[in-house]
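User: My notes are a mess, but here's the protein and zinc ion's SMILES. Can you give me a structure?
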Amino acid sequence: MTENSPFELLIECGGCSLENLIQGFRLGDHAICNQCRENMLAYNLADTHQGHTCDSCGRAYLLKSETEFVNGESECQCGAQDFTILDMKDFADKITKAQDKALDDEEGDAKFDWCRPAPTNGVNKEDYNEIFDDNPGFL
Ligand SMILES: [Zn+2]
Ligand SMILES: [Zn+2]
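Assistant: No problem, the inputs look usable. Here's the predicted complex:
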C-alpha cells in the first residue's frame, strides 16, 4: 500500500460491528459507519482491530480482533484466499498523520471552497459535511 493511493477498505465498526465497505479509501479520509454514524477510525485500531490486505486485489480488511479470520481459509470478495497481515500500529499511525495533514489542508482551502456553489471533486468534502452535520462534537 502506498501513501495516498486509494484502496478498497472493508472495516468492521468498533461500535456496532457492522461491516462497512468503503471504495477508494485514502489515508486521511474519514470512515463513518453507515449504521451508527460513528467515526470508525476514531477507535484505537491497533488495540481493537486486526488488519489484512488481499494479495490479489489489494482490498484491506480491518476486522475486530475477536472476529475470526484465517489466512488461507477466509475468502476475499475477489475469490482470493491469500492475505498479508497489516501492521495495525503502523496503519493507525499513518491514518492519524494523514488526518492531521488533511485537517490542515481542509482549513487552508475551506474559505475558498465555501465560495463555490458546487464542489466537483467532492467525495472528501461530502464526508466532511456529513461529519459536521451529524457529529457537531467531532474532534
Ligand atoms: Zn457502527
Ligand atoms: Zn481480493
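Strands lie at 7-12, 19-25, 49-54, 60-64, 83-86.
User: Great, I'll file this with my notes.
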